[in-house]
Fold:
Amino acid sequence: MSEPEKVAVLGAGAWGTALATVLSERGHDTWLWSYEAEVAESIDGSATNPYLPDVKLPAALSASAEMARVLDGAGLVVSVSPSQVVRSVLETAAPSLGDGALLVSASKGIELGTLLRMDQVAVEVLGESIQERFAVLSGPSFAEEVARRQPTAVVVASEGKDVRDAVQAAFQTPWFRVYTNPDVVGVELGGAVKNVIALAAGMTAGLGYAHNSAAALITRGLAEITRLGVAMGAQQATFYGLAGLGDLVLTCTGGLSRNRTVGYRLGAGESLDVVLGEMTAVAEGIKTASAVHELASRHGVEMPIAEQVYAIVEQGKTPAEALQDLMLRDPKPEEWS
Structure:
């Protein structure tokens, strides 16, 4: 497969804009679709985006609030909307999506109600044939750092080697390194479930605990993600890589992590309504906690950390109570699967 000359990025939040920056500087004719017309006007008019206020965007990057205009002639389409609106965005995009266009999902989450991953949502909206042209991009990557050209490594997963190779080539730059992986299920789940564990990591920090607690939570959180992933058909090794451990460490420890920040504020005693009411960006872990709770039950997988996060965000349990319940569970051998 040859590299596409025009690429379209659907979603002009921080992450979508960062990926559009990579693609534009890679030399593609890159178009960014924004739900908010004023954001598109800012990108086109002054090469700035309020979601990345301190980053100067490439002059060649184009933006529009007109979906059909952005998609017209695009050989590669990147879906970067919040996970709970991916379905509606793809439904809007469907009539303008080229028959041979590759579709790359960079949204990290699980759809509520259906419990579908983003690849499964794409199939429901666009039909089974999209699997032949579908890939998912994930890994440890804060949008602001990517937009500032800080060295970053991610992974792209697809069932087809030709698709993996084409997407890898489309994104690869001297500062944005792309690895490939055939495990779509594992890469999707690693990117989604780590946000729930990151909420817990933020809560422990907000409660005043430090490195011992963080290390334990990350390690046992990875065990939970791996158990669920394997039960759903993923490869265990995927969770030791960029889409698993790499993304988990970043999101649980980095100051730019929205999920960790929400967790920290909850641990410090603020209410969830207040925290979310002050945010302009989406903390995917809040919605994903409910989906993970249901998936764990459906697949008979024990996920004590994720269950406590669910109890906090959905049932009003306090972070201090949740941590105590975790620490007082019956002693047992360390198990990975």
Notes: The chain has two domains: 6-182, 185-327.
